[in-house]
Amino acid sequence: xxxxxxxxxxxxxxxxxxxxxxxxxxxxxxxxxxxxxxxxxxxxxxxxxxxxxxxxxxxxxxxxxxxxxxxxxxxxxxxxxxxxxxxxxxxxxxxxxxxxxxxxxxxxxxxxxxxxxxxxxxxxxxxxxxxxxxxxxxxxxxxxxxxxxxxxxxxxxxxxxxxxxxxxxxxxxxxxxxxxxxxxxxxxxxxxxxxxxxxxxxxxxxxxxxxxxxxxxxxxxxxxxxxxxxxxxxxxxxxxxxxxxxxxxxxxxxxxxxxxxxxxxxxxxxxxxxxxxxxxxxxxxxxxxxxxxxxxxxxxxxxxxxxxxxxxxxxxxxxxxxxxxxxxxxxxxxxxxxxxxxxxxxxxxxxxxxxxxxxxx
Length: 361
Description:
- Helices cover 10% and strands 27% of the residues.
- It has 361 residues and is mainly beta.
- The two termini are 68 Å apart.
């Protein structure tokens, strides 16, 4: 369950006992609930008049975003300050450098191993390239009015209780630092409306035959006879055959309401979890392309994971300290006001990139 969520107070979902008796006696529900109001058949919601969901629109766009309440946005001051670290900066030895050089020579078909095997080191410098990476796992919530074909189920309307606020709806948090989207029908926001596409009848004129029940014969292409001037045996000379799409009825089931004539209208809550990444590679004159660091493995020097991480302050390379400070401030400003920060992880990594100078005499 989402941490810090408040327990919503609402009534149980609608049951079959709440459906008017004529709906359970073999009769179809009324075509448009707005035209047949009654105590057990609530009218369609005014989409701008649901408390706590003002501004929610109808459609398939991004929806109306709701920032988390203040009690779900704790500050970084509640997290422990990072301890001073004795940094163990990796270095390369002569033996390791010679081994790497021998491996390189062995990969070339015409290179001699003798220089690499017999070389005497006069100077060896090792350049370390550092990368800082901050991952901020956030949760955001938005809403849209949606419709779906009504299948005769109980209507969970406002008669069943007061709709919980967007951040009061409990949703289980998925695996940390993995992107995911979950869509939830907000309880007690459902109502019925007649399908405007088909006029509540559940059927529309066939698009293929335009409601004429017949279509052009595909054998004779509407001529009524074949290439030998013989009457077409498929359409018997009429040039038309029964429309296959509507089977001669002239109408097909409405695609919007799936032939039901009714639409269930409700507020849909979209909960999105996203892993937002800040990455910085410090330039240490290694001339190693930064984009290639994603394909190689380095040595982790520092890992910090908590609700809100603090910036690194004592790393030997001041560029990493500055990058860490910029990253935490940037993510705080970018996400804290619009989304809920669930977890952060900061990692500093070093790659040993040897530079061999004057390898042998």
